[in-house]
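Q: Could you fold this chain for me?
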Amino acid sequence: MDGHLRYKMNDSKKAPVRLIARLDVKGPNLIKGIQFDGHRVLGVPEYFAEIYYREGIDELIFQDTVASLYQRNGLHDIIQKTAEHAFIPITVAGGIRTIEDIRLCLKAGADKVAINTAAIPNPDFLRQAAEEFGSQCIVASLEVYRYADGRCEIWTDYGRQETGVNAFIWAKRVVELGVGEIMLTSINREGMGHGFDVDLIAQVASNVSVPVIAVGGAGNAQDLVRAYQEGKADAVAAASIFHYHYAKPINQLNMSFNEQRLRMGEQIDSGNIDFLKMGYGGNYAVPVRPVSIPEAKQAMRDGGISVRELHVA
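A: Sure. Below is the predicted structure, expressed as structure tokens.
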């Protein structure tokens, strides 16, 4: 915990800003929606994770989108397969309700778990988890809905359930309980491609002593830059801008799969291929500009941001 405090207090010694790919998963499928709804099946999550690793992503976040709804986490098999080919930190989110749930995720190959729904009725779960596994393993996932009057409230169950909990008060509370990081998602911006809610990010980041991951809203590479420059995020996570770039052919060198299996795995609904060819959002014209991992990192460098270099064998 002390390391996080020094990290936040001394900007001149900040580590490179981490670029993270978020993969939302339902059953065996990688999916993507808009504001946590209207999901499309995109392909095989562990194959996308392998691409991102090969192209230089710093970390991966796997979110089980129905885990809290059904009170279970079903990502263990996907995490095990991913860990065989991607040697970077992996965070698992969704359905983490007990100490044993955390232990099983770590055993499967995860480095961290992100907790939201279970912590609201039982905040002490975060303290127990941090004491058992260390703060570096425990991430507080804050899914935040901004109302028209400006109120920012925590929602749970993958954006399904209102709680009445003030987001800014809760952000401070989870740090007091011992979490090592905050994953901050704007429900309003998620999947929309209009950019991050930089005011939300800045207000949380300026008032907590642990790193903040900005999630929800990236529509192009410059949005990643603004999340750091204006929001003061310590890490930026994106989904759509990465996922839709790889609707195109990929470099097969060193991959454990072929292009057809990326989108057409044994259990994948093939009906979304035309949707991918039309571009993200199809006729809805959601303004997302597909970006590769190297392009995203170059944009961040051009914005004066220190990023980690690619080191993949």
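A (continued): The CA atoms of residues 82 and 139 lie 20 Å apart.
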